[in-house]
Amino acid sequence: MARRRRPVGPLDLRSQAILRAVIEEYVTSAIPVGSQALVERYGLGVSSATVRSILAELEMNGLLTHPHTSAGRIPTDAGYRFFVESIVEAVPLPAIEQLMIRHQFGQVEFASEHWFRLAATTLASVTRAAGLATPAKPRDAHIRRIDLVAINERMASLILVLREGSIKQALITLEGDEAIDQPTLNKAAAILNTRLVDQTAQRAAARLATLRDDDRVEALARRVGARIVRIVQEYDATAIEEVFSDGLLNVMEAPEFAQSDKLRRVFSALENRSYLGELVGSVAGAGRIQVFIGHENQPLEMQDVSLVLAPYGRPGRAIGVVGVLGPTRMSYSQAIGTVRFVSGLMNELVDHLYA
Amino acid sequence: MARRRRPVGPLDLRSQAILRAVIEEYVTSAIPVGSQALVERYGLGVSSATVRSILAELEMNGLLTHPHTSAGRIPTDAGYRFFVESIVEAVPLPAIEQLMIRHQFGQVEFASEHWFRLAATTLASVTRAAGLATPAKPRDAHIRRIDLVAINERMASLILVLREGSIKQALITLEGDEAIDQPTLNKAAAILNTRLVDQTAQRAAARLATLRDDDRVEALARRVGARIVRIVQEYDATAIEEVFSDGLLNVMEAPEFAQSDKLRRVFSALENRSYLGELVGSVAGAGRIQVFIGHENQPLEMQDVSLVLAPYGRPGRAIGVVGVLGPTRMSYSQAIGTVRFVSGLMNELVDHLYA
DNA sequence: GTTAGCACTCTCACCAGTTGAGTGCCAACC
DNA sequence: GGTTGGCACTCAACTGGTGAGAGTGCTAAC
What is the b/e burial string over A49-87, where b = at least 16 CB atoms within 10 angstroms of the residue's CB? Predict the structure, then answer.
């Protein structure tokens, strides 16, 4: 089907300029771009015939393709990849937009939970693609505070605050003759707080071993402590807790998703949390901005979309990811610039918390 | 355009049976149903010509329509409405499914936050439409517990537990020479707990007035207390906190949404939280299961879909809503039966918490 | 009131012809 | 040798026409 591809080597400047022109034109218009249009709209100083021969060459290199003989050229995933790697310089976000975004972040409640949602919303509205964001999550969670609140005679609510600010809640049902009133719960919570605060799951488990079984309160504390350890372990084990997304409609409005089956594919792509989680994990590991283009994504329903993802936070302490998801035909330069700015902003905000 | 409609009066039994047959047939097949098909598939004991005259009559009454001359009949929104009001008896969920659902709820963490999500997921998978659920929210929130945790020298985290189990978190930035260390925060929290626990926002505000300004700890408590009051007031003011949805893909796969613009409309309908919130509020107020069919919904993008919503919880204490959203061509009998069962189940679970 | 028969209407699928955009190739040119 | 104008070729997209099929509405007979 595809012609034999030469390995993509260094490209002479004129070819690069034309590749760039094709991509820019196609990104805005969404229709295959022909040699004539390129000559007219980009002052290339050569005739359409010359452009045609270069287009043919770029196609030979696998950077462009055309849907049918009488159609113009469109970039391949490899074309976008080459463009992102070698040609594009990330366009920094205009100063006015930077200011507006900073202002928005200033408006919002001073809490990381709001921030990462706002990051997704902001990315969506600026790039006109779908914005993604995950909360910052630590490698090994540390317990910061434990609270027990009586609900009725047989149930209590366990509230567990972790160091980076996330809160876990669980219901404790009391067994047999276990103590039940709020004062007893307070005593148990006090025991747990003195022993477990600032500990990881592993260390917390060890600290529980010394609790006595023959004392009512200590036995209760021990049981609740075991539950806490399980909760923290589970939290540590999940790579990504939650991927928040916004502006999915932006993506769905792209003309390439006019057929409803494609549209559905995109939608299920957006819902494919497991793969998103996987990507997000790898980005958090790599520690720098990353771009995943079309077929570079394994899942079938993801092969029509691209992602630009960047980590934020403090390596070793808490890491989250922000980014955008759009059609492969997206403005990578703008997306990269915007994602870079927002992740930088999130860095500042996290720094505030840990300073 | 539409023929003159007679007011929908009582319908003779045979007409009802035929209306029912048209709806059942159309709900499963999604193609307009003709007189012949009705005679063949439903033992009506009359000829297709007779059925045709009754169909014409039903159309005169505004209960049916046909897309074009040579097409079969499809129900109008009014037809569905009449069906739901007068003809359908809610099909109770099969015992096996009831058991399976109960089992699933038993598996999950014993916490209302998980339950309402599970309710949406369950409704989606059983009805093959989109499942919706909101957490149970009290009319006037009562404070159950207040906690202050130091983050660094200038910031503390406020954790506020409300009576029905929801948790609010906020960052407190300390001012000027305010006390800062954990012991001081503990004292402030203790003051707040003794004064504000079991209080509503209004009563809490009054209780704060007696705090002295010239005492470091009490001044801190007062400031934090004011913040707490604001948070609770804001929580009371929002009618619906969150509408969780699942199984949107089910709806998108319906053949009536094959054109991508319709599909997008449905999607933005699903994202239209403000209207959903409004509906949910009215359902919570009405206190019984309610059905909203097609054009009965004001927003344009909602006019192709129907909702079946039921409240759950304890009137006067905490009320939430569960339900489904599907194409107007949905099985109302099954939807109503399923929603009824799930809301009943949620009632039981809430009762457990308040017993 | 019900039924069989029949003319009528309208959608849908299929087909052929036409248009136009864009390509690939080639001979001529600088 | 790279560049250019010219030209034949290809193919999607549109157009109009035709026939089949489904389902209706009407009417006359039962």
Answer: eebbebbebbbebbbbbeeeeeebbbbbbbbbbbbbeee
